[in-house]
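User: Let's play a game. I give you a shape written as tokens, and you guess the letters that built it. Ready? Here's round one.
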């Protein structure tokens, strides 16, 4: 009995070296449909965001701060969906798949870092619209190309460094029990549920990271749009108000979609959500949002539509 007890205690003390991502457990037809659907979304997202990046880089008409930030947002969207979908396709094809602990932590990092980057970029874009509408005479002197590049670099550095605070602590967690993650990818919540060691420091780190990473950017966006709305309402003509507000409507839609999905996954209590609903909401901000962003900016943006038409016409003539 003593030897068996020692063996059992040794097994419990062994650290889990890999996890099993279950994904969507269902019949083969459903998984094949989800595989094809996810693959099409991935291809559409990559093509749409690459189109935005190419147009902004090639067309002088789009060499403005707003479109520069849109191209940076497109790069962030490509990083997020590339980190998620290829492994998701493998999970759907095999009805689940294993992932090593290191790969799991790496995937978590390259989900959280671009998402933090997107928060900062959306904040910059709201500030850009604030200056353009509330202080138009000084817009060109404030939002210079050098200033925009510096702000973008700071967003990238801050976004990819701030999440290291809790990613490093996540890597130090001890996993000794079940290794099945009933999710589509390695996310914070399901990993913390499997941890055998104390997670207080992780929750504390997440709280302190969320202040500069989510709450401060959200506050800046809200204040910026409150100022924009007040400035637009002071415009005497209805055409002027409509023109002013149309310049930031696309960004406002993207911000609303991004924050609604983020808050629905991480702020709404997970006990009130079924596992399937939690997975679907996770897909919304990691897979569907990167697809929707270029569609919104291309369909609702007159300048981008004109550049696409001019480019298409030149290709046809050539």
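Assistant: Ready! My guess for every position:
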């Amino acid at each position: 009995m003593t030897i068996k007890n020692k063996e059992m205690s040794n097994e419990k003390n062994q650290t889990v070296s890999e996890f099993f991502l279950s994904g969507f457990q269902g019949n083969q037809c459903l998984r094949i449909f989800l595989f094809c659907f996810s693959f099409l979304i991935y291809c559409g997202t990559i093509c749409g965001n690459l189109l935005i990046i190419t147009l902004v880089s090639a067309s002088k008409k789009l060499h403005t701060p707003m479109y520069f930030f849109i191209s940076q947002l497109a790069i962030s969207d490509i990083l997020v969906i590339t980190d998620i979908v290829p492994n998701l396709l493998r999970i759907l094809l095999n009805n689940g798949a294993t992932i090593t602990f290191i790969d799991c932590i790496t995937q978590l990092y390259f989900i959280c870092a671009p998402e933090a980057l997107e928060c900062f970029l959306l904040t910059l874009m709201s500030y850009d619209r604030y200056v353009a509408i509330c202080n138009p005479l000084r817009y060109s002197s404030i939002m210079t190309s050098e200033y925009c590049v510096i702000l973008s670099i700071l967003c990238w550095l801050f976004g990819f460094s701030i999440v290291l605070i809790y990613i490093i602590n996540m890597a130090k967690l001890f996993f000794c029990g079940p290794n099945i993650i009933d999710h589509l990818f390695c996310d914070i919540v399901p990993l913390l549920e499997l941890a055998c060691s104390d997670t207080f420091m992780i929750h504390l780190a997440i709280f302190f990271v969320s202040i500069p990473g989510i709450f401060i950017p959200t506050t800046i966006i809200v204040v910026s749009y409150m100022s924009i709305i007040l400035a637009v309402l002071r415009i005497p003509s209805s055409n002027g108000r409509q023109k002013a507000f149309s310049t930031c409507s696309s960004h406002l839609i993207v911000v609303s979609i991004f924050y609604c999905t983020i808050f629905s996954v991480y702020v709404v209590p997970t006990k009130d959500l079924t596992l399937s609903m939690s997975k679907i909401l996770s897909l919304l901000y990691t897979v569907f949002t990167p697809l929707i962003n270029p569609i919104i900016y291309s369909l609702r943006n007159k300048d981008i539509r004109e550049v696409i038409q001019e480019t298409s016409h030149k290709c046809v003539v050539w």
